[in-house]
Amino acid sequence: MSYTAILGGTCTLIGTSTNLVVDGLLQSEKGVALGMFELAQVGLPLLLIGSTFLILFSDRLLPRREGVIEQLDMAREYSVEFVVAQNGPLAGKTISEAGLRNLQYGYLTDIERDGRLMTAVPPETQLEPGDVLVFIGAPECARELRQVRGVTPANGDIHKLDVANHQRCLVEAVIGPDFTGVGHTVREARVRSRFQAVILSISRQGRRLPGKVGDIRLQVGDTLLMETGHDFVEQYRYRRDFLLVSALNDSTPPNFHKAPLALTVLGLMVGVAGVGLLSIFEAALLAGGGMLVTGCITVSKARRYIDLSVLTVIAASFSLGAAMTTSGAAQTIAGAVVSDSMSPWLALAVIYLLTTLFTEIITNNAAAVLMFPIAMSVADQLGVSYMPFAIAIMFAASASFMTPLGYQTNLMVYGPGGYRLLDYLRLGAPLSLLIGSTAVALIPLVWGF
């Protein structure tokens, strides 16, 4: 999944941040701007070839690892219940078609239908409106299910919670000795009215508690998985009601009613930039403003998604790249890398290889910025066009397959897939060789020397 996402991102100018960085360098230094889908001429063949390789050889090259599902016994285990919505998109679909067999943090165990409990349900079981789906998993399972359109938490108190949808989050809290509801059932403890929180599930000594949540008697040390407001953590972190309070990252439930509007804004951005009415920067800036104005995302959430550390690395890389050009370091390195008699094809392969190695060690954006002035100097030294070298940097900096650190998606699947560092090298090395050789062969055919 990670590798396919990387390859798919190379097909458009906005598919990866590296493409935008190199395009920005081309605009500022050469006055050349790439079209939205111009990279697809090479990106689509790479996607097709890479995907075919992964389908044929990933099972053979990767050993069997325990993913998140197999590791659930080692985690705090909860049982959460969600209801299939009336007239929702999941009604009438099978469990497999609804994507409920492919959860990362939990699995479907039972279905309650018309007072009848269906256990060990097969994936071809058809879902009906009003079905109560029982899931078992880690705390993140509830967060994952909140992202699924067509199911809602079975606890009816969720809809009575006096907290706006965009201000909600999932919180784990361990009951302390001063909690007023100790020894009482959840229903008797009146958690919703006292704490403005709704209990979704309860874990005791790391194991889930079966039965209806409202009938469970609370004990000191019980871990509650709750939906509440963002200010709950700060309000109760140092109170003796709870021994420990921890919010789950990015657990605010999505507002599906805004999805058509968000897709419209995204489509307009791509369309306007694709036909050349506005630059990528202008179109993206207007689209971001449109998302805020229409309420698709809040200002606070948008601010949290800005990763200042990444921006700092990119900015520092730009400065270092400019210093390499003005100081003559880029020309010196280019002279050491290639000779005047070297074939442009071979020089292109050398630039691609160096960019790939840098990408595996540092971030992809930093690698692209550092290699750009060197590639320009190589093109000048050989007396050929700089475009094939700039495009090669785009693809090489994005094609990070050999370590989990080279690209964000590799790191995202590292934990859930139970992978090890050597796994990336086993599958990533031959894939990098295949993609690299194909890219070097195709790029000059589109952007000639």
What would you say about this model in short?
It is a multi-pass membrane protein. The chain has helices at residues 2-9, 17-30, 40-61, 140-146, 186-189, 191-195, 232-236, 259-274, 280-293, 299-304, 308-327, 329-337, 344-361, 364-382, 387-398, 408-414, 421-446, and strands at residues 78-84, 106-113, 116-119, 132-137, 151-153, 168-175, 197-204, 207-208, 223-229, 242-247.
Your description of this structure?
This protein is an alpha+beta fold and 449 residues long. Helices cover 47% and strands 13% of the residues. It has helices spanning 2-9, 17-30, 40-61, 140-146, 186-189, 191-195, 232-236, 259-274, 280-293, 299-304, 308-327, 329-337, 344-361, 364-382, 387-398, 408-414, 421-446; strands spanning 78-84, 106-113, 116-119, 132-137, 151-153, 168-175, 197-204, 207-208, 223-229, 242-247. The chain has a five-stranded antiparallel β-sheet with strand order 3-2-4-1-5. A hairpin with a 2-residue loop joins strand 2 (106-113) and strand 3. Helix 2 packs parallel to helix 14 (364-382).
Number of structurally distinct domains: 3
Radius of gyration over alpha carbons?
Answer: 26 Å
Order of helices and strands: HHHEEEEHEEHHEEEHEHHHHHHHHHH
Binned strand content? 5-15%
Q: Treating each run of at least 4 consecutive H or I residues as one helix, how many helices?
A: 17
Residue-averaged pLDDT, rounded?
A: 80
> How does the overall form come out from the CA principal axes?
elongated
Which percent bin holds the helix content? 40-55%
Instruction: Report the biggest beta sheet as strand number plus sense, adding barrel if it closes.
Output: 5 strands, antiparallel
- What is the strand tally? 10
What class do helices, strands and sheet pairing give?
alpha+beta
Low-confidence stretches: 68-75
**What's the arrangement of strands in the largest beta sheet?**
3-2-4-1-5
| End-to-end separation | 34 Å
InterPro entries: Cit_transptr-like_dom (IPR004680), DASS-Related_Transporters (IPR051679), Na/sul_symport_CS (IPR031312), RCK_C (IPR006037), RCK_C_sf (IPR036721)
GO cellular component, one term: plasma membrane
Keywords: Membrane, Repeat, Transmembrane, Transmembrane helix, Transport
Domain RCK C-terminal: 67-151, 158-242
